[in-house]
Amino acid sequence: MRWFGLWIGVWMLCSLGAGQVAFTSKAVEAVVARYGEGARQRIEAYDMLIGSLADRDEFEKLIAVNVFVNRALWVSDRQLWGEEDYWASPLEFLGRNAGDCEDYVIAKYFALRRSGVADTKLFFTYVKASGQTQPHMVLSYYPTPSAVPLVLDNLNAKILPGTLREDLTPVYSFNASTLFLAKKAGKGERLPGSERQNKAWFDFLANLEKERL
């Protein structure tokens, strides 16, 4: 994962309806053709999981999605995609059954959005993780805007409040529309220049839109 500095370009994911749209049959068949029938089984299991969460409370949704997505293998972008920084769509992640930290976060985000969790509660959060030289990303869930976030992470299977993750130092958070400096117990303040582009993010959105055609 390449470090892009403090600025990151953010697009309105929800303007695409991306957070709540199920996979099209055409997109699924393309992934199955590329990665085999195992991909179909994983995609169907992902869809079934989301369908089973409709009437469950949000913490139960967090647990179920975190466990499911964390089953995939961690593989660097260089090994998996031949690129320094590639943000895979949920279909690509399920197809390969592997990815790096951003890919886990994206797959969790889409599953939770499709299960009914509001975008305003879910933030992509860059952190510095103890013992790692590379930046790391987690998904932060805020039950209320001022609450201490719960952290969904592929490095630690337990969903814990950010204040109990002493191994993580937040750097900044963003959701589908806004960029924030991160703080231990909150999202912090919006940064100017948050509309500046980030190639990986925009490439990801372009791939995502292709999958919906």
Number of extended strands: 8
User: How many strands, which pairing sense, and closed or not: the largest β-sheet?
Assistant: 6 strands, antiparallel
Q: What percentage of the residues does DSSP assign to strands (E)?
A: 15-25%
Number of helices: 7
CATH class placement? Alpha Beta
Oligomer: single chain
Give the CA-based shape.
Answer: globular
- Alpha carbon gyration radius: 16 Å
Low-confidence stretches: 1-18, 193-197
Give the % helix. Answer: 25-40%
CATH architecture: Roll
Along the chain, the helix and strand elements come as HHHEHHEHEEEEEEH
What's the CATH topology label?
C8orf32 fold
How far apart the termini lie comes to 28 Å
Mean pLDDT over the residues: 82
Task: Summarize, please.
The protein has 213 residues and is an alpha+beta fold.
Give your account of this protein's structure.
The chain has 213 residues and is an alpha+beta fold. The chain has a single domain, classed as C8orf32 fold. Helices cover 37% and strands 15% of the residues. The chain contains 7 helices and 8 strands; from the N terminus they run αααβααβαββββββα. The chain has helices spanning 25-35, 37-52, 58-69, 77-81, 90-96, 101-114, 199-211; strands at 73-74, 98-99, 122-129, 136-141, 150-152, 160-161, 168-174, 179-181. The strands form 2 sheets. The chain has a 6-stranded antiparallel sheet, with helices on one face. The chain has a two-stranded parallel ribbon with strand order 1-2. A hairpin with an 8-residue loop joins strand 4 (136-141) and strand 5 (150-152). The protein is globular, with a radius of gyration of 16 Å. Mean pLDDT is 82; it is low at 1-18 and 193-197.
